[in-house]
Design a protein that fits this description.
The protein is of the alpha+beta class. The chain has three helices and five strands; from the N terminus they run ααβββββα.
Length: 104
């Protein structure tokens, strides 16, 4: 599901809301969470999960084209931790489990 799918579903389930209003609301929510993370804040949505940033230390990497070693600076990465209600809902879902193909 992408953001336009999400907007379509919410607009369909809430026919009293205008599509453009749902679109704006979803975009404002995403922008607000992104801005909070950029400022180093943590965002928690009860029952859904929490968004935060984790620091990744500087490390050595490789240029995939040349194979040469490259020094990578430390950086902050966004991190999401699912809330208890979401974990339980996913754990008990009846969604079919697809086994990994072993290539045989």
């Amino acid at each position: 599901m992408n953001s336009s799918d999400l907007i379509d579903i919410i607009a369909h389930k809430n026919s009293h809301l205008q599509y453009d209003d749902v679109d704006k609301a979803i975009r404002v929510i995403i922008d607000t969470i992104s801005q909070a993370l950029a400022e180093g804040d943590r965002v928690e949505v009860r029952g859904f999960g929490s968004f935060s940033t984790h620091y990744q230390s500087p490390r050595a990497g490789r240029n995939p084209k040349t194979g040469m070693a490259v020094a990578l600076r430390g950086r902050y990465k966004p991190h999401f931790k699912a809330g208890k209600e979401m974990r339980e809902r996913v754990r008990h879902s009846t969604y079919p489990i697809i086994q990994a193909d072993d290539g045989e």
